[in-house]
Amino acid sequence: MEKQLIRLKVNGAEHELSIYPNMTLLSVLRDELGLTGAREGCQEGSCGACTVLVDGKAVRSCLLLAMDAEGKDIITIEGLAEDGQLHPMQQSFVDHGAIQCGFCSPGMILTAKALLDENPNPAEDEIRKAMSGNLCRCTGYVNIIEAIMAVAKKQE
Asked: Taking burial as the number of CB atoms within 10 A of a residue's CB, which of 2, 4, 25, 86 is the most buried?
């Protein structure tokens, strides 16, 4: 298989990369760009650890070919903070103890951000439904839901 040249916009920066056509966005982010916030969990889209934002939508980067992300705006957890300040969702996860081992946190935070961008005032059951594709083995989800609800309330 021959490598192909693509351009990806990640966290506001343009990158020109020579990659194999079968490479996932996850592998390009981690192995080619050194952005390791998206985690490799299940490699089948079930755990949500690899979630990134693509054109504002939460996407499992282990299921998306990097070639298919060309021309789209990609945001990883590394691109969420601005001017040295954590994004409100990141800060809320810290404040509410929603981060324990941290493996699932980037995917959780980006999924929650996408939810609130689409629905700024979700009910608790809407939050639980939106987060159902992100697995966590440490927190029991209570603190995660509380962290998301706190950000939603601040936006009112």
From this structure: 25
